[in-house]
Amino acid sequence: MRHRIKKQSFGGRKQGPKKALLRGLVNSLVEHGRIKTTVTKAKFMRRHVEKAITQGKPGTVHARRTLMSKFPNKNTVDTIVNDLSVRFKDRPGGYTRLIKIGPRPGDMADMAYIEFVDYQLPEPKSEETVAAIDKIEVKRQKALAKARKAKKKNIRQMQNKSRKINRPK
Description:
The protein is mainly α. The protein has 5 helices and 3 strands.
């Protein structure tokens, strides 16, 4: 029985799901530089990201293999060793920042952005770029509509054939 056993950190998840969630969060943060998640998940993930960056600072094969065992994603490990560790070479710790943004509307869970301390917001796109993207999106939507229409027509043709075959004479 599990009487008087202290709940594990991070929502009482079992080890497998907890590890999978951690890996996904770390991969996303390393890839994007900033992610939006709950405060609890961000605080849980923070210590692992910071240890990973510190571990990747030497840039040795041993460091890569150790990181690869924790986060089995080659792109993530390469980014940690080649980019993040170099960017934070002179910094002794504190590579991430938590910005609380208030409750999520659906379930009122406290939300936060977790980002690297040197994260820069992307520049807003110019109007010409936005117009070009809109034209491409309109073409894509038209192509999708055309494909849906063709699929629907094909289904109707198959149904008509089936009716002719199975209709009693």
